Amino acid sequence: MATNTFNNAQVQLSTTSVTDVYQAPTSTDAVSVVLSVLCANVNGTASADVTIVKTDSSNTVQSYLAYTIPVPADTSLEVVANKIVLKSGEKLRAQASASNYLNVTISALNIT
Fold first, then answer.
1. In a 3-state reduction of DSSP, which class is residue 41?
2. Residues 6 or more apart from 59 whose CB is under 8 A from it?
3. Interior angle at CA 40, CA 35 and CA 46, nearest 5
4. Which of 1, 36, 61, 106 is most buried (CB neighbours < 10 A)?
């Protein structure tokens, strides 16, 4: 019988490098249903761009959820308008145009 577990992950994008934010469980037939990808700009004065990508477990890009989308100072952006399914081992990764401006929070339902 499948087990359903709610999960979340938070990352401050402390560099402008691509950063792992969330990975689906790696067990056979496991999936994650991503419910929310929220990006908040915690800088009080400047905008920063965010890119969110879906990759396989080897970090090969499968699709872009957001590509250099500006997040104004002191605001947040909900990147996922609906649900996204990640298969076993797939990841969501994020990149910011400026270090320490953006926080990304992901909420998901893991089905294992």
1. strand
2. 18, 91, 93
3. 155
4. 106
Contact yes or no for 98/41 (Cβ under 8 A) = no
Q: What is the pLDDT along the chain (112 residues), one digit of tens a residue?
A: 789 999 999 999 999 999 999 999 998 889 999 999 999 999 999 999 999 999 999 999 999 999 999 999 999 999 998 999 999 999 999 999 999 999 999 999 999 9
The tokens of 74 are what? Answer: 């002191």
Closest CA to 54 of 68, 69, 64: 64
The reported pTM is: 0.94
Burial class (CB in 10 A: 0-12, 13-18, 19+), 46: exposed
39, two tokens: 């990006």
Provide the token pair at 82: 């609906």
Tell me whether strands 76-78 and 19-23 are parallel, antiparallel or unpaired: unpaired
Around Cβ 71, how many Cβ atoms within 10 Å? 23
Say how far apart CA 27 and CA 42 lie, in whole Å. 35
